[in-house]
Amino acid sequence: MKYPTEQDVKKVGPIIRGLAAFILLCSIIAITGLLFAAFTEPFHPLLIIGAIVIGLMSHVSANIALNGYAPKYLLFAHGPKENT
């Protein structure tokens, strides 16, 4: 099975990149809230799950907003590059 590379797929458009930037901003706010709760509240195991979810969400949205491409493990979601 051949996995797509960045040369095989087209970049996402500016609207999607803007939405990814908004999700990145929300992720940064969520990370600060999670860190504040981690230091001021008693430990709860859901803090670890929240950190994993926020970390993955911020990783994907930062790649899309800054590069225009999803991470390598999500490149299958892009459309193929047009040969025009």
Describe this entry's structure for a reader:
The structure is a single chain. The chain is mainly α and 84 residues long. The chain has one domain. It is 58% helix and 0% strand. It has 2 helices and no strands. The chain starts with 13 loop residues before the first helix and ends in a 17-residue tail after the last helix.
Short key terms for the protein model shown above:
mainly alpha
- Distinct helical segment count: 2
How are helices and strands ordered from N to C? HH
| Unreliable sequence segments | none
Give me the secondary-structure category: mainly alpha
What distance separates the N and C termini?
A: 26 Å
Helix content: 55-70%
Give the averaged pLDDT, no decimals.
89
Count of distinct strands? 0
Brief write-up:
With 84 residues, the protein is an all-alpha fold.
SSE blueprint:
Blueprint: H1 14-40, H2 46-67
Helix pairs in contact: 1-2
